[in-house]
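Aim 2, interim progress: modelling of the adenosine-5'-triphosphate-bound target.
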Amino acid sequence: MAMPKQIVQVKQDTTEARLAGMTRPDGAGWSNEARDAAIARVRDMGLPHGRDEYWRFTKPADLVASDAPKAAVFETDEAPLWDDRDRLKVVFVDGVFDAEASDDLSLEGLSIERLSQVTGADIHWAKELYGTLEARGQDPVDRPLAALNTAYATDGVVIHVTGRVSKPVNLIYHHKSEASDAFLHHLVKLEEGAEMTLLETGPGAARLNTVLEVEVPDTARFHHVRVQGRDHERRAATAIFTRLGKESTFKSFTLTMNGRLTRNECVIELTGDDAVAHVAGACVGDGTAFHHDDTVFITHDAVNCESRQVFKKVLRNGATGVFQGKILVKADAQKTDGYQISQSLLLDEDSQFLAKPELEIYADDVICSHGSTTGAIDEEALYYLRSRGVPTDEATDLLVLAFLGEALDEIEDEALAEGIHERLVGWLSRHKS
Amino acid sequence: MLEIKNLHVELEEEDKRILNGVDLTVEDGKVHAIMGPNGSGKSTLSYVLSGKDGYEVTEGQAMLDGADLLAMDVEERAAAGLFLAFQYPVEIPGVGNMTFLRTAVNAQRKARGEEEMSAGEFLKVIRAKAKDLKIDADMLKRPVNVGFSGGEKKRNEILQMAMLEPKMCILDETDSGLDVDAMKLVADGVNALREEGRGFLVITHYQRLLNHIKPDVVHIMAEGRIVKTGGPELALEVENNGYAGILAEVA
Ligand SMILES: Nc1ncnc2c1ncn2[C@@H]1O[C@H](COP(=O)(O)OP(=O)(O)OP(=O)(O)O)[C@@H](O)[C@H]1O
Ligand SMILES: [Mg+2]
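Predicted structure of the complex, ligand included:
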């Protein structure tokens, strides 16, 4: 459907206004080429507008505005997540690398560097990847905020994985300034047969824009677990772009608690036979200000691949959840196994869940299923638990955790999953109806 | 122990009367049985006592050890010592049987101002009781009642009863769906709990269960009230002749 002229004009004006306020980091070196191309993409698409097909459920204004809306810093006395887990920590405060708080950037099986430090080099492997998967992911659906990130990212990590890495790399995002507007761009390139786990934790900034491009070649395995920090007023637009080779695996899980506005996009392309991609999310939101959006696009372009989307949302007191998930099966992608489920548990009548599940299938020998449900707490189950003496609020928490459990089950590493579970228990204890 | 007086109950949603003045007293240490035709209101009575939504008490009262049951929330009734073994136990995906039972035991203890049971102690106790009921470790770990056979669900109800040690136990057709051996296990479980300070109300259609759990008193319920009360011989009469005779006699 063609966009009315005046809206095209509005989009163009807001885009130019935003671009005018952006500055490219110093020493962008070889990345300048990709950044120029990304700016051209942004101009071409225009920044998101509520009339865009994939922004009908989520108002993009706060993500598009020239200045990041202020977001108070959330003080917490909770113990850090996965505290006793051996990890390589890379800390960013409001999008700025914190060397003191970070570990030594060295780990057997991979090389890890900072984007801002490698772009100045004459030649670097990252040049091939920077902005490449993001650009591929713009078709057929526009993702202008990701292109904006490629154009202006100030830092990030670039990881080259050559072996099986013994411990996870944890990107830790602190939010300390009320008005921070951060752009981080991460690249992960695995070699064949290599394997790593990447963790991302924390709110990051008043407004955080991240892009993660992951190249997963034949037989490589990539695991990703992310916990978006609890600051009530933070906003975030994140995008993951990945391409999978033969017999490779990509698994990503995200926990979202609080936040005023979160848009998580994930674009997956299965290009090698027998590849497996799982993407899952659990989200809990309380209050009318909470708006969370998962937008996933999975393209099957090889034989006998499996994809799985499991998204669960618990919403209360007027919170809003959005799920837009698409499985595209190309004509040559026979024996595709595509599974998608998005469910919300609404704890009151003011909360809402908006879902747009899509299947587009051109191959004939495929199994694809998708289901989307919105429901309330199961009254029979609640009565049963209460009849054994469990108080209503505790019984409700048990049922909420059971509901989210299906998404948590997607995390392979049990200790990481346990940490996520504890976080949810903590959240529930602070958010009673 | 349990005192039900002139209890009248209607459905909240539709204009339908189900209980029409139930009078029933279960004394401390006694086992009472209720029999009665399908649809006579036996399960409804048990639901109303446990506090299920959807029913309106229009008249009468129900007391547990002198406390007004009908004024309490569902969980308060449980903490006060009321337990209902359901005719149709609910499946709860995602909630582990053990987690659920430990939460329940400790919630009740907390509500009564008692000390909570430690994880270790709980494990020890539940293992022993599960063994008595031939419930294996795998069933304890599985989500509550999910994928359990009909008989396994009933045994799981009795396990919960054994763990919670309630004062007043209502068993709604716990024998239905049980094979002969399982019925014996369940009856042994109930008999082990028979003691001063505890009462039972056993709803059943069959004499067989009552061979194992010998009732002190048998009631016949029809059309929402207790129409006849007697000793164990009343159950035999039902088994041999059905309800026709009894109902004609009281009509
Ligand atoms: N929620 C409800 N909605 C409609 N009718 C109901 C409801 N609950 C109970 N009834 C009706 O009330 C009557 C009593 O039902 P109840 O389940 O108490 O009988 P029962 O004596 O336990 O029967 P059974 O021996 O078959 O278990 C039945 O006619 C039943 O259909
Ligand atoms: Mg019944």
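Chain A has one domain: 5-430. Chain A touches chain B at residues 378-381, 383-392, 394-395, 398-399, 401-403, 405-406 (CB under 8 Å).
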